[in-house]
Amino acid sequence: MAVDVSFMTYFAPILAYLLVALVVGAVLMKYELVGQGWVAVLIALIVASFFVSFAGVQRYVVAIGAWFGVLAVAVLFLLFLLAFVKGKAEFPAGLGVGVVVVALLVFVIAGIQVFSHVLGPYLPGSVAYGSGNPGVGGAVEWVISPQVLGGIFLLVVSGLAAWVLTKSS
Known about the structure:
Blueprint: H1 8-31, H2 38-53, H3 55-86, H4 93-119, H5 136-143, H6 146-168
C-alpha cells in the first residue's frame, strides 16, 4: 500500500527557506564576508526570502544544479579515463581552467534562459521596448532610455563616492 506524503507540499517552502538560510549563513560566517553576528544572519534570511519568494531564482538554481551535476560527472569520467590511459589519475593543468570556463558558461546560459523574459525588453532592437527598430536608432534609443541613463548616473556617482572616500583615508 502506498504512503500518502502529500502533506509535505505544505512544508516544502519552509524547508527550502531554512536550508537556504542555513547554507548562506554558514558560508557568510565561515568566511566572514560581512563580519560576524547579526549582519550575516540578516543577509542570510534576506537571501532565503528572495529564494522562496521569486520563482525565477528557483528555476535558475534548478537549471544550474542540473548542469553542474553533468559537469561533475563529465570531469570524473575524464579523470577515470586518464587514470586508465596513464596509470594514475592526475589533474591535468588545463582541466581546472576548462572546468571554470564551462561553469561560467553554465551560469550565463542558465541566466539568459531563465531571465530572458525579464531582460528582453531592455535589449537594443527589442519589439517590446520603444519603437523596436533593430538598427542604429534602436541602440541609441536604448542608451538614452531612463533605465540605462539612470544606471550610468548611479555608476558615476558611486565611482565618485568611492574615489572621495579612498582619497580621504
